[in-house]
Amino acid sequence: MTDKTILRALKGETLPVPPIWMMRQAGRYLPEYRATRAQAGDFLSLCYNPELAAEVTLQPIRRYGFDAAILFADILLVPQALGADLWFVTGEGPRLSTVTAQGDFDTLKPASAVHETLAPVYETLRILSRALPAETTLIGFAGAPWTVATYMIAGRGTPDQAPAHALKAENRALFEALLERLTEATIEYLSAQVEAGAECVKLFDSWAGSLNGADFDAYALAPAKRIIAELKARHPGLPVIAFPREAGEKYVGFARATGADCVALDNSVAADWAAQHVQVDGCVQGNLASSHMVTGGQALVDETRAIVEAFRNGPHIFNLGHGITPDADPENVQLMIDTVRAMAPAT
Ligand code: CP3
Predict the structure, then answer these.
(1) 133 CA distance to ligand 1 middle (Å)
(2) Which residue lies with its CA nearest to atom 42 of ligand 1?
């Protein structure tokens, strides 16, 4: 039994008002985040400092009272825990040592070794489980194998994931060995997050949309299915949110095929369409365009209401379609929350 609204929605309950949280809710659009990050030094030092990582996780909960807190960390900590070099270039993004040949792969550690590097993340979760308000759900997360592999193969973020597609074409055995290692590491990592207090986990497959046809099934769907099955075997009843971003029509049936309790929708799919074709399988999360957090105004209010209306007859967690951007106005976040919460039906 739980009173936590996010957990109720994930179990399939239709609530009068959807619970709400926001991807990247702890981030640079908040002055208090920028202050704590300056105190920590760089972004990775913040991720590995349990007290400060817990502090930035709590900041948006204090300011807005979101229904969920998401662990503050990054999907690229897993490659680092496997032995890749990782650093962030200000204004540009992540850089990693690359995996493009068998010799690179051979230097990676086994999946069971990730805990050594990731132990501070588990400590962040333990601090958060004690510090969060009773009604707030604690969400853990990891990147999905394909998305994380795209960064490891290219050594950076890429607009079209071309280096990963090239390795898949040229050396499929190596590509599949890398995905396999990441699948095992993700199971280890998420399972440890649950043991440390995460009540739900989310799998971010940010680049799922660039996998087509059989590749989507083999490299987005199948790893998600395996990760979810193993996590649920180890932690019966654990709710899982899958985010195959920009999957388009492949969102249909994704929850059923992978065993996910909820699929997170990006804002390229229409809410009315998703209510009909995706929400029939259970809870959905999303999907306001994050640009509204920059522009605000009546368009934000109208679009927020339309999304709540579209998903009103089934389980729904309100969220953005992707992470909030650093140029967002914190007042627009409040306007979104007020708009959602004002939509409780009159009784
Ligand atoms: O949602 C949350 O607040 C939880 C924490 C979280 C972060 N990154 C913090 C972060 C989560 C869930 C992520 C996921 C993540 N990280 C993804 C998948 C989701 C997505 O956005 O598509 C990806 C691809 C990454 C990799 C990553 N991390 C990139 C490409 C960047 C640089 C781009 C940028 O925004 O600067 C990051 C950095 C990052 N991760 C920041 C935050 C708050 C900004 C770091 C800073 O303070 O400078």
Answers:
(1) 25
(2) 27
CB 325 within 8 A of CB 293: yes
Q: Which positions make up the binding site for substrate?
A: 24-28, 74, 151, 206, 322
Cα angle 32, 35, 39 (rounded to 5 degrees) comes to: 140
Q: Which amino acid is at 168?
A: K
Integer CA distances (angstroms), 76 to 83, 86, 280, 294, in order: 11, 8, 33, 27
Separation of 89 CA from ligand 1 center, angstroms? Answer: 13
Candidates 75, 90, 206, 293: which one to mutate for ligand 1, based on the most atoms within 8 Å of Cβ?
Answer: 75
Task: State the Cα–Cα distance between residues 141 and 239, nearest whole angstrom.
Answer: 12
**Which domains does the chain carry?**
24-263 (3.20.20.210)
Amino acid type, 89: V
Q: Is this complex's ipTM strictly greater than 0.90? A: yes
For the stretch 172-193, pLDDT in tens is: 999 999 999 999 999 999 999 9
The amino acid at 214:
A
Residue given tokens 């008002």 in the structure block: 17
Closest residue (by CA) to atom 38 of ligand 1? 93
Sequence length of the chain is 347
Residue closest by Cα to atom 7 of ligand 1: 74
How many helices and strands, by DSSP H and E, does the chain display?
Answer: 17, 9
* This model's pTM is above 0.90: yes
